[in-house]
Design a protein that fits this description.
Elements (H helix, E strand, L loop, with lengths): L3 H13 L4 E7 L5 H10 L11 E2 L2 H7 L12 H7 L1 E3 L1 H10 L17 H13 L6 E4 L28 E8 L3 E9 L2
């Protein structure tokens, strides 16, 4: 029988290994969850379960140059509160599945893929780690008018830029014990 960590890590790799992304988790240590998210972005905390993280090797160069937040800009808790919007668990699954595609010129966006159900199942597996009472936040501009936008109905669309890349798009999971940061970058 596969352990839960192996199942989670396999789903994470199938989803995000082939795109320019960052996927990391950390402990929930502060009343204000943004402090925990910032610690994950800065990589100053480890996954509380010891599970794998996933991030592009290009990011190592920026961190080695003395910038621990790279590829993110230096952010504050106030920035996070102002620049992210809440979304439902169902929308979070769709968003995470959408991060598995390239930004532009995607030959087969998730909504048209033959393996769409498998991609969505992997996204659910990754997010199930955080439990049923998890709050989800995104940097996307789509949830301006509702907390359940259809992320599969259109191409990837960033919101407030958190990096110096042309576009970036993030999903944040916040549970009572952990936070997860999942980010996609248009790095073409």
């Amino acid at each position: 029988m596969l352990t839960r960590s192996v199942t989670w890590e396999a789903a994470l790799l199938r989803l995000l290994e082939d795109v320019y992304t960052l996927a990391r988790c950390g402990p929930r240590l502060h009343e204000d969850w943004t402090e925990d998210v910032l610690a994950v972005m800065e990589r100053s905390v480890a996954d509380p379960r010891g599970w794998s993280a996933l991030e592009s090797q290009t990011f190592e160069q920026g961190r080695e140059a003395g910038y621990p937040f790279y590829p993110f800009r230096a952010l504050t808790a106030e920035d996070l509160h102002a620049w992210v919007r809440p979304i439902t668990a169902g929308a979070a699954v769709e968003l995470l599945a959408s991060l598995a595609q390239e930004w532009f010129f995607e030959g087969s966006p998730v909504r048209f893929r033959e393996d769409r159900d498998a991609v969505l199942a992997d996204a659910r597996t990754v997010l199930d780690r955080f439990g049923p009472d998890t709050a989800f936040w995104t940097s996307s501009g789509l949830p301006r008018t509702c907390d359940a936008p259809d992320f599969l109905a259109r191409d990837l669309e960033g919101g407030h830029p958190f990096t110096d890349y042309m576009m970036d798009l993030g999903l944040i999971a916040v549970s009572a014990d952990e936070v997860g940061v999942f980010w996609s970058f248009n790095a073409l």
